[in-house]
Structure formats: C-alpha cells, structure tokens
Amino acid sequence: MTLAELADASGLAARTIRFYIARGLLEGPVKAGRAAAYTAEHLARLERIKKLQAQGRMLSEIGRSLAGADSERRHAAPPTAWWQHVIADDVVVMTRSEVSPWRAKQIREALDGLARSLGKK
Known about the structure:
This protein is mainly α and 121 residues long. The chain has a two-stranded antiparallel ribbon with strand order 1-2. The chain contains 6 helices and 2 strands.
C-alpha cells in the first residue's frame, strides 16, 4: 500500500508515519522512492504504537519495548577515543580526543585552572 493508504488505514497522518520512521519506531517502506510501498506489518506496528500511546507511554519507551534489548545495543554510541588528564592525585578528567584544536586549547586551559585551584601546578 502507499503512504496515503497506510495513513488512511491507520488513522494517522502521513507526516506522523514519516516521523515514526525517522525516530526508528517503524521500518521504512519495503520499496523506496516515488512508488514507496508499505505492508500489513507496517499497519500492525502502527496499531501497536497507538495502543501503547493510549496507555500513556512515551515514544522512547515504546521504541525500546517494540525493539527489545537488541535496540539498545544497536543504537548505542560508537566507541570513541578519550584523553585522560590527571589533575590531582585523586582527580582524573576524561575528554573526547576528536575535538577541534581550538576546543582542545579551551579544555586544556580550563583543566590547568582546575589543577592550580587544587594545588597541583
């Protein structure tokens, strides 16, 4: 079925369906482009979403419950490299390494100030 047909069948606006797709609550069409096609599974999923919303659940909660535990692993942030800054014997600060040189300078100056206030430098 088309997006318009799915919208009519579900009682939701096409804009809402697109929003659900963008949020990951609903899979995209099985066929993309101008002739985008949606299936009965899309309609069933929309009905489940509507039912959970009627129970007062938030979209983030609905997404987790519909996707299961694998969703959290799949949507977790990719690993990143971090710099470790020892400020004092009992203070260590971690910062992401992929910041711009300008931002790295700002961070370093702030950390130097913190270290001075703690009596290290």
